[in-house]
Amino acid sequence: MAERNDSQASEYWSATLRLLIGILVIWFVVPFLGGIVFADLLNNIKLGGYPLGFWIAHQGAIYLFIVLIFFYIWKMGEIDRRFNVDEK
């Protein structure tokens, strides 16, 4: 019985880490690529009167962070239910 619990705890932790690493990678890559690497190309497009590269670097990163918070909440709820550790 203890092996099953250890195995399940390990799987739960792995699923949680995969989610967290994926979210952190997205949070880094989108502002980095949009606000730095491709900024010159994106600055030809205007969003709300501002160049898109500038907007992604300053506002888009914040909006992305908020969206990722809600995505994390939703996915953690799924993971918790899958491993039967959710709060009912």
UniProtKB/TrEMBL annotation:
It comes from Ottowia beijingensis. The keyword Membrane applies. This is DUF4212 domain-containing protein. The chain crosses the membrane at residues 20-42, 54-74. InterPro entries: Na_symporter_ssu. Residues 10-86 form the Sodium symporter small subunit domain. The keyword rRNA-binding does not apply. Pfam families: DUF4212. Keywords: Membrane, Transmembrane, Transmembrane helix. It comes from the Bacteria.
